[in-house]
Amino acid sequence: MLRRMTSSKPAAPAEEENVQMKVREKRHFELGNFELKETLGTGTFGRVRLTACNTDQKFYALKMLKKVDILRLKQVDHIKSEVRILSMIEHPFIVNMAGHFQNDAALFMVIEYVQGGELYSHLRREVRFNDEKAKYYAAEIVLAFCYLHGAKIIYRDLKPENLLISQHGHVKVTDFGFAKIVEDRTWTLCGTPE
Q: Where is the Protein kinase domain (predicted)?
């Protein structure tokens, strides 16, 4: 898959448009499919829990978003956009979504579980990456962004906390809450102030 993405042969315009507009079908899940385990992280709207899925015996990160908080903070459009974008994309250096569902109280996104933790934690522990490791991570981030930009998606929240490391040492871009499909340009001010 990596070889295809790095090919120097440009995609035909019709192919690019299909990539952008195609929404992949995701698996159907419900809360009863999961055994909830420890909390992996918390945010403004809810939390992410490690889960074991009883239908395929895989581990997933289950992003649970409280509807009342989404409505109170007027984030409905952002959440819909995040689900739409994650439904469109699949890439080895992006945390991929397996599906989504909802109940009366919450929205749920079933996300690939990435075992290695945040790049931020690795950087704090090492203080500084050597040149070889920094180039390696940067190259994978660039490949992920080239893929996103080819689908006219801009990410808009790149920071070490939003980069996870897989068990094999690869970068995985996560948290598409600020991502947006842009045909020309956008004027939105967003991201993380720090």
A: 34-194
